[in-house]
Amino acid sequence: MSLLSINFGTTAPVPTDSDSKTPPFAIIRYGAGNSRIARNQDDLLKIDVAMPVLGDQQHACEVWRSDRPMQHEQSGPLQLLYNGIFLFGALEVDERNGLEQATQDAYTLILEQLRRRGYPYLLRMWNYLPDIVGPDHGVERYRLFCAGRHTALATEPGYESRLPAASALGTTGAGFVIYFIAAYEPALQIENPLQVSAFHYPACYAPKSPSFSRATVKHWPDSTQFYLSGTASIRGHESRRTGDIQGQLQLTLDNIEHLLTRAREQCPPIRDNLDNLALLKIYLRRADDFTLVRDYMQQHFASACPPLYLQADICRKELLVEIEGWSTFDSAR
Ligand code: 3EB
């Protein structure tokens, strides 16, 4: 067992996966329906994400565990689980005040609660919101989301060097959910020299730039973890190979290779290459691209853990694929 582990599993009817002795503290379930968060009597958080799973499975899940007992607290809509070393949080964003304000309020609440509880630094965030590229009073919803997030996060000098790794994807049902991990000290930020950092994108993508790092690395007492943000077919700040799924896939994988090279240079415990990067989530805009992408991945990578394929809107209309991942290295080795 380790301080923080995630496995992919299936949800039929109880989650089954390879590490089932320690009870999970959170389960993220992907599938059709709506996004929502529920907590049961054992303080297990169940996060449903409205994102169809591609391939054979109807439902798939991410099972989070820790060998240290988790304490639970709730602050308004925000669910917090923490154990003295890291904090896991999740909330449903209520969009009634408009997406920009709602996002700002959600992030402000998160930061406030993290500071109060002694886990001030975000390491990795997932943002799953409906209709991400759709319009809202004439403005694209992703831009409204970016503006609200930026206002909340950009309150202190130097915030850019402490931005978490992130993913922001469109769901197919109702409900906007955010979940994240945070800690007492910040993670190391990794950027890709071939991509403009998202927090420096020109204003054409979002008047307030997307506040995330390409990847982060965190040293825990027992391990080092690498968190890869959602990565797509972008060079400089421009989308490349539009309309070409295989081309976008190759460029995305190439971007990931560059990030892994940087991570290995900056953090010696990291020995990652694409083959041992685990917990890959591959988001595809078009379900029809699944077979091609799966076949390509199977031919080129011998990953021990097969990727989870999800159908989701990526936050630029022309992007067809986005890939995120995670890996853990034992510090003792
Ligand atoms: C990109 O590289 C693609 O706004 O949190 C990837 C990961 C993307 C996270 C975010 C956006 C976000 O710009 C999109």
UniProtKB/TrEMBL annotation:
CDD domains: YjgF_YER057c_UK114_like_5
Residues annotated as domain Chorismatase FkbO/Hyg5-like N-terminal: 62-182
Pfam family, one: FkbO_Hyg5-like_N
Keywords: Lyase
InterPro entries assigned to the protein according to its UniProt record, in alphabetical order: FkbO_Hyg5-like_N, RutC-like_sf
GO MF term list: lyase activity
Protein name: Chorismate lyase/3-hydroxybenzoate synthase
Natural source organism: Thiohalophilus thiocyanatoxydans
Organism lineage: Bacteria, Pseudomonadati, Pseudomonadota, Gammaproteobacteria, Thiohalomonadales
